[in-house]
Amino acid sequence: MNKYPWLIAQYLNFVKKYHKNSLHPINLIQAPTGIGISKLIFNVSKWILCLHKNKFINCKKCTSCFLIKKKNHPDFYNVNHISQYKNIGINIIRDIIKNLYQTSQHGGCKIVYFSNINSCTLEAKNALLKTLEEPPKNTIFFLHTRNITQVINTIKSRSTIYYINAPLENSAISWLKKKNKKFNFIQLLTALRINNNTPISTQKFLTSNAFKQRNMLMHAIHKYIDKKNDNDLWNVVLNYDEKIITTLICYLLLDTIKYNTCHKNTIKNLDQFKLIKKIADINNFNVLKNNLISWINFQQILSTSHKLDKKLILIEQILSWMKILHK
């Protein structure tokens, strides 16, 4: 787990519990995406299934290590990977359960991993629940969720629950610095906060075109405020993903509210203080709050309405928002 140092303690925790025969058969993990939970479970599973493991590390040479590395181990079920669809249906659960009650292919443990337990349909959850009530012998379940409140109580009551948070900012920044020499501290911290302190998501954000696109949006907003030139703003908006641009504008408005209410230490867009100050200087708290609420409502429309012309609604939303950028 040296690749993700913030997960080493949790890796050792799982390994030590298994070594002492105290690892619960059902392990529910609440953690954000972008911190390496799948990698954590993959490494724990490699160690458990290894035929010649030492105290904390798998041998990397046995048949079991080879098969799990190739993502082809018969006793490791990565359920979300098996499913070809976004939601996991009852048929997949039934097939896995049927296999769990058969003898292990390698004579050891069987491991079932859900990278998103909330993606199961109601029928799939009910079928799974019957197995969780009396788990098959030598079987371990790892259930990951981003939001434990969405997990049904009957699953929670049968699980040992682990809360794994994103690493502290200093740890995440140290990790990011080693991988990104061309960005300064403020840029790294901005990217980290935009990605809710999840370092792996931040790394993808920095190395893809996403950070550059976001900077183009901020520059276009700045230019519109200073010169009343909206050409660049519309070019960016009309060529941007609606969900991403909505999230970025929500963060900018929230930062402006934080600036006005003396919560500057929690601002996400640290590299845009001048822009935040300009917007804050020409708008009071209520105007900013109401505009933020309208963007949040628009966000809900994007995620729930599939037949509407989302680009047209975005244009209407932008036109309304542009009014607060000029007074």
TrEMBL record:
Write out the catalysed reaction: DNA(n) + a 2'-deoxyribonucleoside 5'-triphosphate = DNA(n+1) + diphosphate
Instruction: Fetch the InterPro entries from UniProt.
Output: DNA_pol3_clamp-load_cplx_C, DNA_pol_III_delta_C, DNA_Rep/Repair_Clamp_Loader, P-loop_NTPase
- Work out whether the entry's keyword set contains tRNA processing: no
GO cellular component labels? DNA polymerase III complex
Under Enzyme Commission nomenclature, its number is: 2.7.7.7
Q: Molecular function terms in GO for this entry?
A: DNA binding; DNA-directed DNA polymerase activity
**Which BP terms from GO are recorded?**
DNA-templated DNA replication
Q: Oligomeric state and partners?
A: DNA polymerase III contains a core (composed of alpha, epsilon and theta chains) that associates with a tau subunit. This core dimerizes to form the POLIII' complex. PolIII' associates with the gamma complex (composed of gamma, delta, delta', psi and chi chains) and with the beta chain to form the complete DNA polymerase III complex.
Summarizing the function annotation, the protein's role is:
DNA polymerase III is a complex, multichain enzyme responsible for most of the replicative synthesis in bacteria. This DNA polymerase also exhibits 3' to 5' exonuclease activity.
What is the protein's name according to its record?
A: DNA polymerase III subunit delta'
User: From which organism does this entry originate?
Assistant: Buchnera aphidicola
Q: Identify the gene encoding this protein.
A: holB
